[in-house]
Amino acid sequence: MTTLGDDRLAQLRRAYGRVSAPERITQEAFDFDDHHLRRLARLTSGDRAEGRDIWEYTQDLLYTEVQGPLLVYLLPFCLQAWRDDLRGVRSEYGGFVEHFYPVLADRGVFTTHLTARQTAAVSQFMRETILDEIDDQRGLAYQGANARPYRWIAALNTHGVLLPDLHELWEVWWTTETVGRAVAAVQYVSSLMYQETDNPVFAPWTPERGGGPPCLWEFAGHLYKHCWLTPNVEFLTRTLTSPAITEVLGRAVERLHGQPEREKAQEVYADLPLCTETLTSRCSELPRFLAKPREPGNLLEWSS
Q1: What is the dihedral of CA 205, 209, 213, 217, to 10 degrees?
Q2: pLDDT reported for residue 2
């Protein structure tokens, strides 16, 4: 029995094109032990990479010269691990993902090593994976640090750093055509509307359990000096307005008719007139925050 993840990966491979492992591995191993590279090069379609092997591979990519043909061959396996982590399928890939994001951002993966067709296939796979996670969102009451919405919000934010087509993901989500998309819209907008301790969807942060509303400008992985690409900032600046949010929340409430999340969504929608000043200010601030490179000690905070 195939799963949605299997279908997504098969679609990626078809669009990506047939590639083979290079006959000779010239990729330097960062720790001088290339056994993980040889194991990875033997993977075939249907295999999953071991978490330790692809974590070590990210160190090779980050700190030594990249063997392009090997990267092109192994990228679908890396993306499968990334998807498994985002979707909560397997927990062994968390350390890999933290370093995979800076590999994509800093090592010329999309500009040097992949063709335009391959980059488009990778981007589609990543966007659709984030949408799959959005479509599975349920619930509008969260406590503690491990709340599921943090995963998709961080992935969406990080996509804005990597690829200039965030609008293709955002516009599909913003239709609220599925229950999960409607729920996710309320999750996201609540973090724009409310003060941290007043959010009815996310309970306040506590020293014991963590939690609190998700940070809407926080990236996943080790991306400390990065920011959104200009087309994504420009899109969000045009898109994120108080009237647009009022419209999307109204659609979300309608889509949640008969769902247990409807009552909380109506509560958030009813609070919009009380949060106009905060919402307007944050809609203006968020694109500016996302456009700023992350610098040590540069802590960003809402002004209201």
Answers
A1: 100
A2: 59
* Residue at 22 is within a domain: yes
Spans of the chain below 50 pLDDT: none
Same domain, 198 and 103: no
Compute how many other C-beta atoms are within 10 angstroms of the C-beta atom of residue 24: 9
- Ranges of H-type helices in 163-211: 166-173, 179-193
Same domain, 211 and 140: yes
Structural domain of residue 113, as residue ranges? 1-121
Question: Do 215 and 99 share a domain, yes or no?
Answer: no
Any domain includes 129: no
What pLDDT, on the 0 to 100 scale, is given for residue 96? 97
Number of separate domains in the chain: 2
Last residue of a domain, one of 93, 121, 149: 121
Query: pLDDT tens across 199-235, in order?
Result: 999 999 998 889 999 999 999 999 989 999 999 999 9
Nearest CA to 110 out of 81, 83, 79, 154 is that of 79
The 10s digit of each residue's pLDDT in 108-141 is 999 999 999 999 999 999 999 999 999 999 999 9
Structural domain contains residue 127? no
Element (H, E) at 1: none
Structure token digits, residue 186: 């309320």
Distance of CA 101 to the CA centre of its chain: 10
Name the amino acid, one letter, at 7. Answer: D
What pLDDT is recorded for position 241?
97
Last residue of a domain, one of 75, 93, 121: 121
- Quick check: helix, strand or coil at residue 248? helix
Q: Which residues of 230-248 are buried (b: 16+ CB within 10 A; e: fewer)?
A: eebbebbbebbebeebeeb
The per-residue pLDDT of the chain, averaged, comes to 95
52, 61, 74, 217 from 114: Cα distances, Å: 25, 15, 12, 28
Identify whether residues 12 and 41 lie together within a single domain. yes
At 252, list the tokens.
Answer: 């979300």
